[in-house]
Amino acid sequence: MADLIIRDNEDKHRFEADLGDGMAIAEYNLLSHTIMFTHTEVPKAHEGKGIGTKLIEFALASARERGLQVIPICPFFAAYMKKHAEVQDLLTPAYARILGVAPASDEGERG
Which of 17, 51, 74, 102 gives a 20 to 30 Å CA spacing to 84? Predict the structure, then answer.
């Protein structure tokens, strides 16, 4: 889906892509210095095409540009962030620990 256009619909608190026959969305809540991703949805007819991943990548790039830490309440966001070390620095310290990706220095001497 090379021509997928994703935008931040600030009024609806979601990143979205108009797929012609439906919307793919990644909902969020803005907090003080953080963005909480709460729900991601891709219409069934478009599942398995990488659209959800593209939404996540766009949303995380936006968070990075805005200097926001990420709270991934949405299981899809959490799984993506757990697998991709290049975005784990965006996690709040608490969520880094929850996902088991906290830096070794946060783990103490238990190693």
Answer: 17
